[in-house]
Queue: 4 jobs
Job 1
Amino acid sequence: MCRMPQEPVRERRVGSQVQREVMQLILDRRLRPGALLPTEAELMEELGVSRNSVREALKALQALDIVEIRHGYGTYVGQASLTPLADGLTFRTLVQLADDTRALEEILQVREVLEEGLVRRVAVLLTDEELSQLEALVRKMEEAADAGGAFPELDREFHETLYRSLGNELVPQLLGAFWNVFNRVAGVRGWARDPAPDVTVSRHRDIVTALRARDVEGAQRAMADHFRGIEARSGQESRGVG
Amino acid sequence: MCRMPQEPVRERRVGSQVQREVMQLILDRRLRPGALLPTEAELMEELGVSRNSVREALKALQALDIVEIRHGYGTYVGQASLTPLADGLTFRTLVQLADDTRALEEILQVREVLEEGLVRRVAVLLTDEELSQLEALVRKMEEAADAGGAFPELDREFHETLYRSLGNELVPQLLGAFWNVFNRVAGVRGWARDPAPDVTVSRHRDIVTALRARDVEGAQRAMADHFRGIEARSGQESRGVG
DNA sequence: ACGAATTTGTCCGTATGTATT
DNA sequence: CAATACATACGGACAAATTCG
């Protein structure tokens, strides 16, 4: 009877009706990403609601990257990217980070499982050109490491190039979202710097070497070693002094 | 026209700014999921913006499940679940489905890579009790199949139980999101029915049998076969008549 | 059981900034 | 540069939902 006010009931998500109607409108009219949506005034009339309700619905859809609002011009159909996933995971990780680093380790484990499985599949798909691109990226990493700097963008590009031959657009987006969360949170914590860039470079080189030899098992092992390195970096810090 | 020079120019994107400020407020005050947020009136005053701006920001955060709004009571810190991912992926898949089923196949491939890797890891972690639970679920599936019905909930529970010993909460949420997208879209297309439930049951039984024998390779093979079955189901339909 | 207080939901009107033409 | 169309923001008012005395 007297329910604790501090505990919200987990009721089924009612959601905004207007929100769903706008989504349905996009689907019904076969609008593609980039297409222009009706203006707020038109949506007011078509859906029979006020401007405020339309705006709140559009704001919610914008947060999901389902629509894209351009100030002074109009509203477009969005790309429905994984930006909301990255935003939500970042927030959740930061909230939980006050207690422990579990959320971060969970993300890392998912990345590891994904990439170990993926590297096996691309091992037989990669073209010579792609292998050359990967080797070039490793050389660039080496130069950056010799200069004493970090190379987050090169790392990102490496993994993106690695899985291009799959032809699966969801894969780089998903990995990119995880990568973003990890780096954003790491930046807040202060342990964004790679303590041993040269080791990281050789991990990447090992992966390419195994792939060049079409050594599926070796590529998976190299990828696993790569993640062991990342785990050691974050694990060492989480047990260190605050 | 006559803009006062000493007055600081108003921030460009107040909307997303308020959004970030609310998130920062949650982090600064160490609010946990379920905690009550300041009321809209209080946020207006604290952030120095109008109520509409506050509401639009809260609506956007609600779409990301970062806050949870209850009419007539208040606003809570949300769970930051993967509901936005499921919503976004569902929308993207539906939009693209007018052309092809590529988005759906991409999701399936990610699920497959994930589950093949995960089943290897749980093979050495599963307790006898969890194995018994899995066997019980397979028996229930068999009963449902004999009765001629489908068993989407049993399938979902099977995969959830399978990875419980990992202790990774992100894994079931991620797989659940993918599963939701797949089933929601499948429902729209009309090919939700499993044409051969008995085959699906035996795929699951094969997985449990291999796991009971602690046969890592066999478990992965069984999982791969399981997904071959799902691919065959959807692939056959996508090449069939409209 | 009922009403008051609180809080969110919706609407209207108006003024301003911004991009396109 | 001027005009236009559009999104952005503010303030006020009332309705609906929830809680609690």
Job 2
Amino acid sequence: MPEGHTIHAAARKHDNMLKGRVVNLSSPQGRFVEGAQKLNGRECIRVEAYGKHLVYRFVEHYYLHIHLGLFGRIKVHKRPIKDAKNSVRVRLISATHVIDISGPTICELLRAPEIEQLIDRIGPDPLREDAEPERVFHRIRNSRVPIGKLLMDQSVIAGIGNIYRTELLWRQKLHPDIRGRDLNQKQLEALWDDAALLLNIGAKKNAILTTDIAIANPSKSREKFNIFAQKACPKCRGPITKIFINGRRAFICALCQKQLPKR
DNA sequence: AAGAATGTTATGTA
DNA sequence: CTACATAACATTCT
């Protein structure tokens, strides 16, 4: 989708999607119709991301809030317009392109105050120019919660997912069980900087790339990980251990990620 | 074809 | 209050 395009949105209701506040997004027939109701004809003037939350701002202070969750996808097609798949909830249309958003866990129309609430409850996002890393450091420094949990707490730092968590901790040689308060300023800064580096590469390449090789030569690689779901550590050749943090799988190299002697 | 997966939130339990 | 576990929801792929 070229930047600066004026896009229009249409949406349809599906099961519990668009619940509560935004029910009227659906067309009367429950079918996908370009330009049905509410969002119809409103120009999208800006798209912002706050961590994993997407906010499309339309004229007259309407905001479309999208969270793709685990399964959501955004697919960009060139015109002409074709039928949307059943899973498509929102379609954004410009003069040249059609964007289908399917399977989002959040899909709602909000006004400015609700968007502000949303932003307030989300921690600093390393991808954003206006991010204040000191807020992240403060939260971590004052917490007994292990860093492996804090990293995926979106109110602490926004945007880190399950793969980036494992990969960041490995790259920084940090064991996920280290308590937040046991990290020093230098480690915190390095963690933030590396998160910003990796996320920027990911955003640019539209792929999760965390190995130095993939970063240096991302042309032919899509997803490339050091230890996530891998057998051996690329650095020490030691075995990778699978653990669970908050019910999500995580991986560690017992040799490279030493537990700190501190309690 | 059952199960797993790059996510989040609400609710239950100790 | 905390901390943890479980369920619910979304979809696609093997």
Job 3
Amino acid sequence: MEIKNVQIANIFNRMADILEFKGENSFKINAYRKAARVIQDLTEDIETLAKEGRLRDIPGVGEGIAKKIDEYIKTGRITRYEEIKTEFPESLIDLSDIVGLGPKTLRLIYRELGIKNLLELQRAIENGSLANLPQMGEKKVENIKQGLKLFQASRERILLGFALPEVLGLISELQKLPEITNISPAGSLRRLKETVGDIDILVAGKDGRKIIEHFVHLPSVREILAAGETKASIITADGMQVDLRVVEENSFGAALQYFTGSKAHNIKLREMAKKKGLKLNEYGVFMGEEKIAGKNEEEVYEALNLPWIPPEIREDSGEIEAASNHNLPQLVQPDDILGDLHLHTNWSDGSCSIEEMAHHAKTLGYRYIAICDHSQSVKYAGGLTEDKLLRQIEEIARLNEKLSGTGFKPGIRILAGSEVDIKNDGSLDYPDWLLEKLDIVIGAIHTGFKHNVTERICRAMEHPLVKIIAHPTGRLISSREGYVIDLEKILEKASQTKTALEINSYYERLDLNDLNCKLASELGVKFVINTDAHHPQHLWMMKLGVGVARRAWLNKDSIINTQPLPERLPKFTINK
DNA sequence: GCCGTTTTCGGCCCGACTGTTTTCAGTCG
């Protein structure tokens, strides 16, 4: 459904690139970019909005852009785009993604040297013709050369689950320095976006030079890109670029706010500040010359008459308006999670015993877990035969005796479950008499990703024992697209059958993602946040899934594993 | 091209850095 949203957003972004190249009014260009971003983040189908004549309700969409959207939906094309697209070679506009090569320079090399594509740009660098242009010195050519290298490598963004532990490690190393009075990750990492580009760490402290000296000589640093008094950039042994910035203590909040972004959120805040006769920048909030806030984020927001806004929702997608109306959501927190309902063990393709998983879960403060190993037809993952599942149910009963809390020692409850494969006809991989012996049944697709997946999942959700659908879209971030599905249909069926959809926290999945969760939530769907852990060391990823939920504005009431288990098991109660 | 509790016209976030200049343009975040 959101396909048209993405297509239209892409066109507007491309139009902005072309208009920028043409040297059009920069505010017009920004208008296109803003519209593109808002449309991309929309949870509603833009086609529906168009049919209902509600396009103009989208912030950033006015008369001109609404007309173009209507045209695209009716005819599949936008005349204005087709016109300007033919004025210049596509391969030329592609070059605008090169860092260090802005629209002005691009226009210069096109006009003066006739450069139209990557290859010609490379040649111009090599034969020195680029360096001969006016305003073009040695350094600038070198910059473009570097940008070109990055562009060709088309540097991939880093998975959050990969970057987060690394950054927390760096931070705990840095905290040992007494000169550092405050420290925090910033940027998209702090907003818990599923992938991050550069990694930003912000520090408040006295002796910038010393702090940076310490930072660039940490053991995990492979290469130093820059090291000044207030800013340093390094490459870690894992190949991640990390920027450290040092600021004065009384500007830490303003700088943290600024470097956390998002850019769109910051722009809106600055507009607000301006309307109030204030000025907001990375040093503080100013009334004339006087600084009225900046030491911490709370007072920065307060100076603008706003409550503090959690970083995860700072995307200018309604959070500022909600804050103004004192209507911010009570976002679910990591501590709200009472159990993990999707764990694997060495009974199928996990690497540890049920008891080991339970022990680790207990150290995290969980009150319950569910063991959901694979079902019989998932051979490659060691799916359990019917007999083996029966034996596992007995083993879990035995462990529950052993691990149940006594007196002052709280225990942990292990639920017997299964991640049951949804077969090609939508039936389940175990017979009902066996499923009925389980505390919890999760349905999942593992084969036939292009084969009637929507119908299969919907049929599985109609089964009264299927309480959860695991990783509902099947995507792997930056490596697999996911099943071919009609997501909206699935969400509606989930809402109707009261089947919870999983937010799978495994770092490569994060499935459902933030936008899909937001959409699902609007349709009244319930969620469960699981790790799908195959090893105790995967359990920490719960915080990634909680991040997804927070980015989707979810509160704890819509997430079933924030609820305590009923006194008497066996059956996990989701009323279907 | 969008938008409006000062406006339907005249604004549109803000600062740092870099490189090439000699007071500033271009680019980035």
Job 4
Amino acid sequence: MSDNDVMTAARTKTPEPAAAPTDPAAGPAVPARMGLRERKKLKTRVAIRDATYRLIREQGYEATTVEQIAEAAEVSPSTVFRYFPTKEDIVLTDEYDPLLEVELRARPADEPIVESLRHVLRRAVRLGFTEEPEVSRLRTTLMVEVPAVRSRMLESMSVTGRMLCRVIAERTGRDADDLEVRTFSMALIGALTEASAYWAEHDHEDDLGDLVDRTLDMLSAGFRA
Amino acid sequence: MSDNDVMTAARTKTPEPAAAPTDPAAGPAVPARMGLRERKKLKTRVAIRDATYRLIREQGYEATTVEQIAEAAEVSPSTVFRYFPTKEDIVLTDEYDPLLEVELRARPADEPIVESLRHVLRRAVRLGFTEEPEVSRLRTTLMVEVPAVRSRMLESMSVTGRMLCRVIAERTGRDADDLEVRTFSMALIGALTEASAYWAEHDHEDDLGDLVDRTLDMLSAGFRA
DNA sequence: CACCTTTTGACAGTTACTCTCATTTCATGG
DNA sequence: CCATGAAATGAGAGTAACTGTCAAAAGGTG
């Protein structure tokens, strides 16, 4: 998911260096590292994000201006906007949709999509948790408390929804733009996002993995009421 | 729904005058109209909205500034913001959640909620359509094309979701804050919103009522894939 | 008509975000 | 090691969506 809900909980990493071209013939034995340029860019990105998280924790979201963030990250405001299109994106942007898509495709094609999601999300929750539980919590809290952040998060849902459409379409042979495929996908996303909101609203007391499980159970059992 | 998706399609009316207190003992035979003050407020509200729709149709959403809207509606920018908290709200705000809630509660309590929604939404779509088809289309188009509007619309989904939770909770005896109730509701909302998006993206060629039907069919048939 | 309340407009200020341009910083081939 | 080109940065000006304040105007009431 591009950032929202459940995946929101998991991770915050920066994108992989995109496999540096390990030229076998030419270069030295050195693992063909990223150029200094790229390394610096990554550092800047991380610096901005870390500064943002810190400031928000200290003084809240609205009270934290981009100018402050820039100062804390030791860059100019211009640069902040070059790295992140909006303030909300600093908090939310991650690049997990592609990863999630890969993992979903790796599951057996005849497995019900709900079960595929169950496996993949469980793993994501576990990983995100052992790594940076605080970030998961901060994010979901902001999602519940700050309208702008919630909006941006909901926005990202539709991106993830498209991805889900593609996967489902491929499995079922239907079109990714099929009405049923699309509404089905968004129903899943909507439910899972709500599970994350529930988690945050209940002060993260439950185990997110369990909430996801229960949500998927509900979905696969079919709606009642 | 506070504004989003399917309900987006339906209506745009202004809120009912809130049943003027027809004091049977006191006042004159006059139907106890709204005071001049209230009538003026309504007129201003309508003027702002109409001006906004017109300007957006003429020059697009982003190109239309609040200042222009104010001028066209013959009020000051301050007043515009007094009536609508954000620019997106001018386009989106309606007050149909309460109405929808009433109609849902009017359905037999033992009817599956999906069927209740089917009846209520079908009627809403029909009404909204005979009345102001253009507004329905403009809205859904903006929802698909303008990120800010889409965000605001998604935002309103959660409000509608809460309402749905209350209705479902009452019918089933569960708590409105129950995880399953909440995720179930948001799955419904997510699916229906996506149906509206589908409608707009396909240039409103399909019949919205049919799309809603198919979506609800899919939901009640249970997920597959 | 006088008095009080609500609504309005004028205005100043904040902040997110955009654009442009000059400067600096890295990469690369000679 | 340096010259040249490309990319990243910073500075600064500008826009537009809001927010808050205060005084003037309009509506309601005795």
